[in-house]
Amino acid sequence: MSATGEPLPPNALPCPVCPDCEQEMQGLGLFSWFNPPWMILSIYCPHCRHPLHWQPVPIDAAPAEPGRIQIPS
Q1: Residue 68 lies in a domain
Q2: Containing domain of residue 38, as a range?
Q3: How many Cβ atoms are within 10 Å of 48's Cβ, its own excluded?
């Protein structure tokens, strides 16, 4: 929002520029893959496919708790 509280037009902010191919990125490519015990999340440039950031996230491999709701048979 502007200083007066009015919304800015969509073209008021510049798009980010890829550090590799130097093109404007109007969107980001997102990709994730699962490789136990990790899930790897990545963000990449949609033009040159250069990875901008990736993050391995540990996955808890412990079995889930049994259900707490008991239904009589």
Answers
A1: no
A2: 29-59
A3: 12
Which one-letter amino acid corresponds to residue 68?
R
Q: CA 33, CA 45: separation in Å to the nearest integer?
A: 17
Q: Total domain count for the chain?
A: 1
Residue 45, domain member (yes or no): yes
Token output for 4: 């007066």
Name, in order, each residue with C-beta under 8 angstroms of 32's C-beta and a sequence gap of 6 or more. Answer: 39, 40, 41, 42
Give tens-digit pLDDT for 7-44: 777 667 778 899 999 999 888 899 998 888 889 999 99
Dihedral angle at the C-alpha atoms of 36, 38, 43, 47, nearest 10 degrees?
A: -30
What does the block give as tokens for 14? 């510049």
